[in-house]
Design goal:
Blueprint lengths: L15 H35 L6 H27 L16 H13 L2 H33 L9 E3 L6 E3 L3 H30 L4 H55 L4 H29 L2 H6 L1 H10 L5 E6 L9 E3 L28 H22 L4 E8 L3 E8 L12 H11 L3 E5 L6 E8 L3
Parallel strand pairs: 3-5
Antiparallel strand pairs: 1-2, 3-4, 5-6, 6-8, 7-8
Helix pairs in contact: 1-2, 1-4, 1-5, 2-4, 4-5, 6-7, 6-11, 9-10, 10-11
Amino acid sequence: MTTQTATPAPVTAVKPPLRIFLTILHLAGVGILGGAIFGMLGGLLGTGLGLLFVAGIGLVLLVGLVYALYGLGWFEIARVGALYRTPIAPLRPQPRDRPGVGGWLRSLGRQAIDGRMWRAVANFAISALLGFIVLRLFWGLVWSIFISFAPLTDADAVTGPFGGGGIAVAWAPLVGILGIAACLAGMLGLALLHRTLSLAIVIRSKETELTERVRTSTAQREGAVRAADVERTRIERDLHDGVQPRLVSVGMTLGLAQQKIDNDPDAAKELINEAHTSTKAAITELRQLARGIHASVLDDRGLDAALSALAGRSHIPVHLDVRMDPSTGSGTHASTGSGTHASTGSGTHASTGSPTHAPTRPGREAEAAVYFSIAESLTNAAKHSRASEVRVTVRLREGNILWARVEDNGIGGAQVQPGGGLDGIANRILAAGGTFRLDSPQGGPTSLEVNVPCAS
């Protein structure tokens, strides 16, 4: 799956002297923490390898090591981006390409060899080494300041900053001034070196960035093509299995009525009534099919109203919770229904929350992707899950991300099959630049989560 790249907000410029000072502070902090962090990581690696065949304890430790490296890489990328006010996408975990333990292991393996994560970890290691040198230079700066005033004492000689022979008091001021200049120059040079190395290691080049964009666009285009193919197959199947036979039956019924209209008008009238009833049923099926292709209420009244109508038509009771305002959480819409849109099964419609302003509307593409994902999930639940209840939760999250979760209490065991409904959901979400996650163990419950970036 793919993730969106947000446009960074404008930031206040920091003057170069302050930037250098902040870089030195960063290096000092990383120098203090670096030894402990890499000691812990080394301990995890050694213990995990040593206990690899002892009741699986080593495997647990090695999995923890991968997650610890991911956390360190995420921190380093966030630190460099914040320090140098450079737009850089955060490190994200590798998504699952299939449900279950197998999908998790595949994503864990991809995470363990993620080049971007390892570049960030390497940059942290280099920063820790530079930070250690900065700390030594800071101690040398403090020592140089103090020995500059050595002639004011009664001592005949002063000890060097790192031990060794003494320095005559007469030479102490000159040595102190030179030491101050050297230490300041060293810390300045290390700060500039850190900036150069960090920007080269952590922040990808334009060529790499463009390559990643092309790869993402290609994946989205392939997802859109597969989603369109799955949708076309579904429409063909629905027409062939539903509307087409009904229309053929109407034609045959009208033909029989035409033959009997002169000799047996009453029988012809019954046949015409039968054809009329079948025609209305065909119109209803065509309307439902058109609604599956494009829900007009989605454009007219938004995702909340479209999902309310969808829940009202569901054969399984649906509890719907939609919040489209990430700042206040207002506009909550809760309902359940079984063939009707009702809060308690009595044919009423209950809402909670009193929004003080109009809820936010996501982009049309994001709304459509989430709507059809939920619609297909409810259809699958009604056909295969044997569920007695479905819960649908939709949120517009911070960062302009539309998130939805559909969970039923059925028998589970759902899998993504090529050309199936879940495959159509995955491809549609991929085409919209989002992520798709299915969790359906045997025995249930089945939950499906989608994240779709909204148009900025």
